[in-house]
Amino acid sequence: MRPIQMVDLRQQYAQIKDEIDRSIMEVLETAQFIGGPVVNGFSQSLAKYLGVRHVIPCANGTDALQISMMALGLQPGDEVITPSFTYIATTEVIALLGLKPVFVEVDPDTFCLEPEAVAKAITPKTRAIVPVHLYGQSSKMEEILLLASEHNLFVIEDNAQAIGSDYRFRNGQVRKTGTMGTMGCTSFFPSKNLGCYGDGGAICTDDDELAEKLRMIANHGQTSRYSHEVVGCNSRLDALQAAVLQVKLPRLDGYIENRRKAADYYDQAFAGHPNIVTPVRSDYSRHVFHQYTLKIDHTNNPAEVRAGLLAHLAEHKVPAMLYYPVPAHRQKMFAGLGGKEFHLETTDWLTDRVFSLPMHTELDESQLDFITSRVLEYFNKM
Fold first, then answer.
1. What is the mean predicted confidence (pLDDT) over 98-124?
2. Strand, coil or helix: what is 358?
3. What is the pLDDT of residues 282-327, one digit of tens each?
């Protein structure tokens, strides 16, 4: 059995090595490292895959979120509703721009933004909602979009963990996550379902005027060379990363199916266990399993039990992760922005209980059997 990795990028690369190497060599031979046909070609391919008019590539997913908020003209003091149970990038850009993060609860089953909590948090100062499609599953976008429409709010989808997921509306319409709001942001960090070999990100939108402004901001606010219309930043997806992504994009749906098969194996192994709650797969979206995240239940000391489990797995060389051990509203960086004012019982409850097992495209049955056996072994000894 191969050593088990949380994300096995080496094995994935081995499967596509010839194409990746050739694609990278073509960039090296042309020496067009910034912009150019490879970046433009990937942007067009991704736009076609997602079914949107515009994809604006940038340097990383955090920049994608920041550029999006800059393009909307949000002003210091404007409120942005966001979950606290998410990676810090979602929330730090709000603070970076002088906006006020308003942290709300997530659904304890899907880990995604709870529309009822959003509705209660809307005030006259609210300007935007940032739903995070966490771990690979979509937020309840139909309800969130309705709230946004009723209150004239922007919706910025954080799609860094769910690219390729489908969302089904009640009328049967199906859209890709990241394409339903005002704009959608994604990351191409290497461990993502569609990852490059460095940093990278993108913003997508159907709004022509907004797309032009996003491109301008990502390129120093330029309308033409040395003509700067607005304050911008320097955020570009380089051609070498675009070359990698262009090879991987046609394989994305296959990668997702591999992840879903691994999730099926985990689900079956843990089915009915009194202490393990497997991920919920909502009927309105296709879970793409960026992470396979479980909850520990029916125990008086979930954090203690979890710590023991992780130590047991580490002893057997099985990696596991806690995403995210300290929610945003409890982070020191938000202490001066009212973080302590928020009381999020569900978020705190989840923080004590969740843990994630290895999830990637190259997991084989022997590895999955070993991982699940070690987890069950621990609980059976309790």
1. 97
2. coil
3. 999 999 999 999 999 988 899 999 999 999 999 999 999 999 999 9
Inter-residue contact 147 to 129 (CB < 8 Å): yes
Given a cut of 80, whether residue 340 has pLDDT beyond it is no
| Res 339: pLDDT | 67
Q: CA 65, CA 241: separation in Å to the nearest integer?
A: 19
Domain that holds residue 279: 252-380
Where would I find the beta strands (DSSP E) of the chain? 54-58, 79-83, 100-104, 126-129, 154-158, 166-168, 174-176, 183-187, 201-205, 222-224, 227-228, 276-277, 292-296, 354-357
pLDDT at 189: 98
If asked whether residues 257 and 364 sit together in one domain, one would say: yes
User: What is residue 127's predicted lDDT score, i.e. its pLDDT?
Assistant: 98
- 325 belongs to a structural domain: yes
Lowest mean pLDDT among 178-192, 219-233, 237-251, 314-328: 219-233
- Which of the listed residues 226, 250, 274 is the one where a domain comes to its end? 250
- Do residues 212 and 274 share a domain? no
Q: Does residue 3 lie within any of the structural domains?
A: no
What CATH number is attached to the domain comprising 229?
Answer: 3.40.640.10
The amino acid sitting at 19 is E
The tens digit of pLDDT for each residue in 54-71 reads 999 999 999 999 999 999
Residue reference for tokens 């069950």: 376
The CATH code of the domain that includes 283 is: 3.90.1150.10
Number of domains in the chain: 2
What is the residue whose two structure tokens read 């009640």?
170
204 lies in the same domain as 296: no
Q: Please, what is the end-to-end C-alpha distance for the chain in angstroms?
A: 28
Residue 362, phi then psi, degrees to nearest 5: -110, 10
109 and 19 share a domain? yes
Same domain for 204 and 135? yes
Query: 129 pairs with which residues across the strands?
Result: 81, 155
Query: Do 286 and 166 form a contact (C-beta atoms < 8 A)?
Result: yes
